[in-house]
Amino acid sequence: MNACRALPPAEGLAVTLDGPDDFAAWRETARRLLLARVPPPRVVWSVAGEGTGDLFAASAPLPDAPADAAAPRVSRRFLDLAGKAALHSCPDRFALLYRLLWRLQDRPGLLDDAADRDVRRMDELVRTVRRDMHKMRAFLRFRAVQQEDGTEHYVAWFEPQHHILRANAAFFVNRFTSLRWSILTPQGSLHWDGETLREGPPAGREQAASGDPAESLWKEYYAAIFNPARLKIGAMLKEMPRRYWKNMPEAELIPSLIAGAQARESAMVERGAALFDGPRPSSLAEVAQGIAACRRCPIGCNGTQAVAGEGDARAALMIVGEQPGDTEEQGGRPFIGPAGQVLRSHLDAAGIDPARVWLTNAVKHFKFEPRGKHRFHQNPTAREIDICRWWIESERLLVRPRLILALGASAARSLLGRTVSVQRVRGEAIMLEDEAELWITTHPSYLLRLKDDARELEEQRFAADLGRLAARLRDLAPRA
């Protein structure tokens, strides 16, 4: 490149930024380097005070751009991602970003190439920084300090892994606008007096407050809401790593709460068992009230709302699924999620009116595994299905269906009391003790998991099962 000929062949061009999160300075310098056509290998990026750099790089003025230099092309998407990646603590972050910016001039769609090494590396930095920002917002704890004038000033200590302090400032200003507070970190400090935000020098943990009277109340609250039935130690440690515990007053309770979780869960289940000592419900409304209060198994203790059956209370056909899903739990109704839509579509195609059917589930609460912001379905255990048989049997006694369709192995077990192979028994009627006929097929959620030809074949089999059921339903004599 013409702009680089003034540099000795073995030397690079040294660029030193004033601060580790000085993205604005990087952006302006990168633009000038790009205009001057200085390729990435010739630039050595460093941050003042970090001790990084290249002994052979020349601290020379930036070269001028040639007269025919074209304006750099850069998308808002790249700037947003680069602004986050620049906050990472890895020393090569600014070199990576300039290399990507250089390549984007010839490949505008480069960011869509998930297989590209540089793109993957930037995405990794962005994810890590966002996670660190989230951890600071979630696990930073303010403690009240009494001032000489009698007012309270709140002080927090946090040890971020990356250069996120300034980037998180707006969040805390907006969240705690009316308070006076300080956030102390090894990288720097922030001080808010209710009107003005000031930056300060790095601090030590000994400068932070050690506790305040409100902490005992917070600990009592935390212990009260700690749900042993939803305890997953691995998931908890992934979301709340131990390195944050030392700054969280409630963390000192966690070992004892974990140790007592099994005993507390057993106690909760034992208390719920009393619900089954009395007579069976006399109405479907009582069934709905009963399952809402049921705590006989851990699923009933996981904080979700129970989902009762619905439909025609005198239906000749009862359809039993496995359990409510995320959509059903939030809506409080069975079969309204994606799998439910598949079922209703196939019922219509088979000539079965969903409004003339009683729809319910073997398990009445949603069993799930949290992953970030989402809840993923978990299969209920045989014991949990067997415990919930009380409610299915109560519904059968009240609705008195003549045909029952079980969707999947869990639903079949709730009606037979044993596990069967769906593929072996599907399409055949099984006579139950009350002379109702049980028909078994796959759950419609299984169809959603299949692709292309496999899904088409299984949908044909599912439609055939419902077709046989519809024919049998038409053959039944009207109920007296």
For the sheet with most strands, the description reads:
6 strands, mixed
Question: Can you give the helix content as a percent range?
Answer: 40-55%
* Count of DSSP H/I helices: 18
Globally, the shape reads: elongated
Distance between the termini: 94 Å
Number of strands: 16
Provide the spatial order of strands within the biggest beta sheet. Answer: 9-11-10-14-16-15
Rg: 32 Å
Mean pLDDT: 84
* Spans where pLDDT lies below 50 across 5 or more residues: 1-10, 53-58
Structural class: alpha/beta
Amount of beta strand: 5-15%
What topology emerges from the helices and strands here?
Blueprint: E1 12-17, H1 23-35, E2 43-47, E3 57-58, H2 76-85, H3 93-104, H4 117-139, E4 143-146, E5 152-157, H5 165-175, E6 181-184, E7 189-192, E8 197-200, H6 214-225, H7 233-239, H8 254-259, H9 261-273, H10 284-293, E9 310-311, E10 317-321, H11 326-331, H12 338-350, E11 357-361, E12 368-371, E13 374-377, H13 382-387, H14 389-399, E14 403-407, H15 409-416, H16 422-425, E15 430-431, E16 437-441, H17 444-449, H18 452-475
Parallel strand pairs: 1-2, 1-3, 5-6, 10-11, 10-14, 14-16
Antiparallel strand pairs: 4-5, 6-7, 7-8, 9-11, 12-13, 15-16
Helix pairs in contact: 2-4, 3-4, 10-14, 12-18
Features:
5-stranded mixed β-sheet, 14% strand, elongated, 41% helix, 16 strands, 6-stranded mixed β-sheet, single chain, alpha/beta
In short:
With 480 residues, this protein is an alpha/beta fold. Helix content is 41%, strand content 14%.
Characterise this structure.
By secondary structure, the chain is of the alpha/beta class. The chain is built from 18 helices and 16 strands. The protein has helices at residues 23-35, 76-85, 93-104, 117-139, 165-175, 214-225, 233-239, 254-259, 261-273, 284-293, 326-331, 338-350, 382-387, 389-399, 409-416, 422-425, 444-449, 452-475; strands at 12-17, 43-47, 57-58, 143-146, 152-157, 181-184, 189-192, 197-200, 310-311, 317-321, 357-361, 368-371, 374-377, 403-407, 430-431, 437-441. It has a 6-stranded mixed beta sheet, with helices on both faces. Helix 2 packs across helix 4 (117-139), helix 3 crosses helix 4 and helix 12 crosses helix 18 (452-475). The termini are far apart.
